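Cross-posting from the chemistry board since nobody answered there.

I work mostly on the small-molecule side, so proteins are not my area. We synthesized flavin mononucleotide and want a rough idea of how it might sit in this target. Sequence and SMILES are below. Is it possible to get a predicted 3D structure of the two together?
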Amino acid sequence: MTDRPRRFVIAVTGASGALYAARTMAALLERGCRLDVVVSEYGRRLLVEELGPEARAERLHDYLVERYGTSVGSGSITLHSNRDLGSTLASGGNRCEAMVIVPCSMKTLAGVAHGLSQTLIERAADVMLKERRRLIVVPRETPMSLPDLRNMVACAEAGAMVLPAMPAFYQKPETLEDLGAFIAGKILGALGIEHALFPPWGET
Ligand SMILES: Cc1cc2nc3c(=O)[nH]c(=O)nc-3n(C[C@H](O)[C@H](O)[C@H](O)COP(=O)(O)O)c2cc1C
């Protein structure tokens, strides 16, 4: 009997760092994962502004194959509308084991922290929390306001992992790709997936 592919929800919101989303999705797809992807309106804008028009949400999988190679074709992407609160992702019955919001804007962070469920991204995140599944939020903002900081605490208290988009420099990054790989590697590690996206500390 063949193993079922692992399934994850990936949400892309309107914070800078579209590269982090791209590298994370590519790394999961290379491992044959099935991704349910939701991109907010401003997430769509960021994908195009930071990666180019060829990275628009509707052709993300093709873009990732072109950028990271044919092995990315091993997995699959299903794109969901952020307005569709009737999506399978809005129900606790969905089969995704975890969700990553990468990058996560302060606005979506606030919505998750307060359980608003006004968009599919917020609702899917709330589903992860209520079902006690893993939710990883990757906030990017600087500096942060007190409400931003409180919202991160609220997310952590609710059971989410707050994994800020803060690349390290001990692995001697030389390219933007190295910075993207570092955050993607942190996310894969948090999902319990082995990777070689950056060398472990002490092995550089
Ligand atoms: C080019 C651009 C860059 C932005 N970068 C950030 C950012 O890094 N962090 C953030 O919290 N908001 C950022 N914003 C603002 C958010 O996109 C805005 O608050 C939006 O309402 C977020 O909505 P969403 O979470 O539904 O995507 C940016 C907006 C634009 C247009």
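Reply from a structural biologist on the board:
Welcome over. Reading the output above for you: Residues 176-190 form the longest helix (15 residues). The radius of gyration is 16 Å. Happy to explain the token format if needed.
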